[in-house]
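pasting for the record
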Amino acid sequence: MLRYLKAAFLLKVPLPGLGWLPVNVLVMLGFLMLGFGSPGFWLLGLGLEVVYLYAVSTNPRFRRWVDLQSSLKGDQAFAQQWETLVGQLSPYDRDRVYKLQHKCDQVIRAYQDAHASEYMIQSNQDALRQLSWLYLKLLIAKQNLQSLSTSTGITELKSRIQTLQTDLENKALTEPIRESKSATLEILQKRMQNLNQRDASLQEIDSDLSRIEAQADLALENATMQGQPQAISTNIDLYSHVLDGQLFGDSAQSIADIDQKLKQASNIIKE
């Protein structure tokens, strides 16, 4: 409860020509100054402040916003994981990620300049973060897919699949070992499928990357050309089907961790 009261007390609102200011603090300072001339203002200010803090700090929407603020803020591990994944890309693809992120930053600055509510800005930040994250995952999948044919050939994969299938016919296998081999077989079969469909998958990924870039362009145009702030949509039906984790390689765990953090942050907004 204390953090909600603190957030309500320090809440900033946009004022034309002045930017974001902690209006509640300024109002309380005003009552404090007036109280030196007439102490009744101190009692009035205190009463109004109690009503304000109770109304705002108990508001469900405001509480969700405060929860969202703290869900990712200060999470150094999150930022490091993200930057590590970006660093694994080729220089060209890293540049693509940074260009998209810069465009997303421009969108948020446009909404801030338009004095949109903090709730709207935070919601759109989350939407743009989801788009950037999807973009990064597609680039990682693309890079791994491009290296797939050189790291593991079809002949080698076929041999490993055949070996596992033969092993699974052994009825003497314990259940844990059988489950482990079955899981490995499923992964290898998926990799074989990806390898067979490599060129088509790369085309699908490129198409999805272009769609995300177009979505970011549209968000920027809407933010700068329209007077009324609007929610940014992340509903993009992807053509590619390579984001199931099989093509993330050594990055799979980091990607799963970030997926979970972003899901938790989005759920706070949607509640």
